[in-house]
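Example record

One chain of 166 residues, shown exactly as stored in the release files.
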Amino acid sequence: MEYTPKKVFVLDGKTYLELSYAEFRQQKDTYHGRRFIPLHGMLMEVPEGDYKAFYKRKRREKYLKKRSKDNGDFSYDMLTTDDFNGEDILVDTIADTAGQAEKELLVDRLRQEIALLSDSEQQLLHQFFNQQLSERAIANMYGVSQVAIHKQKARALAKLKKLLKI
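Predicted structure tokens for this chain:
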């Protein structure tokens, strides 16, 4: 054993009895044949099936670690520090096809509904959203006030929202 456990938990019926390691060692003949696993610096008695599963997992981890070392495998987790997560350098290259398809359907529907607006409303929205002109710049182009353009834009967007049933 690599360390001396602080406590030992022994099954006594359906409950655990807590012993110091010294007490456990004095009564070791009483607990001969029982199965214990290390747990947070302590020993805990477990059923034989759990004991076998625990050590099977431990052997598998040891085997995988040795195999990785022999093969020169590299884990991005090894790059993790307090300031940096090693996995952050990985790039997700898998496209969100469902999200992309949904977006394309919405864009197609938006185009169809915009076509139902009047030509002047379509022109105004095109200048505002596609050309990214400000309300003031559009107002200067038409020789009207910025408030008038704002109201026209608000009416066109409300109409579009109603058509889209948002």
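Notes: The mean pLDDT is 87.
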